[in-house]
Amino acid sequence: MDWENRWHPLLEQWVTITSHRGARPWKGSVANAANAANAANAANAANAANAANAANKEPVTAASYDPDCYLCPGNTRISGEINPDYEEIFVFDNDHPSFDIQAPEPRPSAPFYKSSIASGVCRVMCYDRHHQTALGQLPVQQIQAVIASWVEQSRLLYQDRQIKTVFIFENRGELVGVSNPHPHCQIYGVPFVMDTIGRELAAVQRYRQQHNVNLFSQILRAEQEDGRRILFSDDHWLGFVPYFARLPYEMYLMTRSDFSDLRHCPSGAVESMARGLKIMLAALDALWNTPQPYILSVHQAPVADSDTSDYRCFIQIIPLMRAPGLQKFLAGVETGAGQFLNDGSPEQKAMELRQAQNRGSGGV
Q1: 353 in Cβ contact with 287 (< 8 Å)
Q2: What are phi and psi for residue 152, nearest 5 degrees?
Q3: Exposed, middle or buried by CB within 10 Å (0-12, 13-18, 19+), for 132?
Q4: Is 214 domain-assigned?
Q5: Is residue 364 domain-resident?
Q6: Strand pairing partners for 14?
Q7: What total number of domains does the chain contain?
Q8: Residue 192 belongs to a domain with what CATH number?
Q9: How many Cβ atoms from other residues are within 10 Å of residue 360's Cβ?
Q10: What is the pLDDT of residue 63?
Q11: How far is 325 from 304, CA to CA, in rounded Å?
């Protein structure tokens, strides 16, 4: 068992690994097993629907279509817009945006405080027509199409000179607060550098100044040399549980190339990225043979006033469970002080994920 502080080089903060606390007595909230079973059954039904669709024998099941879902093909959204009868990718402007180019002027505040218009673009991307499938359950070719659409949306949004950050993320599962289980992600384009991306960029720049080396290259080298936390590896990407993981089962899929945002992602890296994502997400669901709630985010360089050439594009996957039925809560020290306590050793969790890969679709 590990009980130590580990330095998070991208966020420049300490993470405390407390795997000795993983078996502590627990009398708190337990994730609803019935909901997990229902989600697993729905996912299995969705897999069958996808297989039948591939054979041109698509069944009409609850898993493939929900008449009350505002993301399913042909349904009417709250805006009154009718979704097209799409097969795979469907992108539209969010009907309930957090940021919008038509956001109102802020109300006047006291001179000490500052405010600005919540300007920006918020889009929704549906991965697939089937209501209860998931990104990791799609065939590699379709995940590749999803990534190609991420690339295109990044290009479109960064053409607007007011946009400084394009942030793509997926929330999966009720524990994350998802209001609709239809497979989809969100894309934000905002006129400022988002906080985490800005912190990562500053860390990369400081590391270059201090050591004259790329920080991402150092992380890749360290993970490769250690080897215990690797989940996926090829010429383009490295998938791993980071040494400095803040949460159990946290995973990174990091490019080996020198591109800083999706606009510059080599075409050959897209298929590789799709394979890595599928392997890692499938392993997560295979851990306890049930769909896992997670937050997936695409980290890419912003348009900043300073040099961004050392930044590298990567995907972060943050699962919300620390054990079967047990959610990882961000309690007092994490939420109040920003000091993360990881109840699982990254080496042990990576081994569990590799074992899950072997039980499922195969290993690295």
Answers
A1: yes
A2: -65, -45
A3: buried
A4: yes
A5: no
A6: 7
A7: 1
A8: 3.30.428.10
A9: 17
A10: 66
A11: 42
Domain assignment of residue 324, given as a range: 3-359
pLDDT at residue 304 in the model: 95
pLDDT reported for residue 58: 42
The answer to the question of residue 170 being in a domain is yes
List, as one string, the DSSP characters of 99-119.
S-TTPPPPPP--TTS------
AA letter at 67 = P
Q: Using alpha carbons only, what angle is made at residue 356 by residues 350 and 357, rounded to the nearest 5 degrees?
A: 90
Query: Is 229 exposed, middle or buried, given 0-12, 13-18 or 19+ CB atoms closer than 10 A?
Result: buried
Question: Which tokens go with 68?
Answer: 């009350």
Q: According to the 3-state scheme, what is the secondary structure of 182-236?
A: CCEEEEEEECCCCHHHHHHHHHHHHHHHHHCCCHHHHHHHHHHHHCCCEEEECCC
- Beta carbons of 232 and 253 less than 8 angstroms apart: yes
Strand order in the sheet with 165-172: 90-93, 121-126, 184-190, 165-172, 294-299, 314-319, 251-255, 237-240, 230-233
Q: Would you state the pLDDT for residue 166?
A: 98
pLDDT means per 10 residues, the chain with 364 residues, are 93 93 52 45 43 40 81 96 96 97 91 94 97 95 98 98 97 89 97 98 98 98 98 98 98 97 95 98 95 97 96 97 90 92 96 92 48
- Establish if 196 belongs to a structural domain: yes
Q: What is the pLDDT of residue 21?
A: 64
Inter-residue contact 165 to 194 (CB < 8 Å): yes
**Using an 8 Å Cβ cutoff, are 203 and 215 in contact?**
yes
Helix ranges, the chain (H):
33-54, 140-158, 195-211, 215-226, 267-286, 337, 346-359
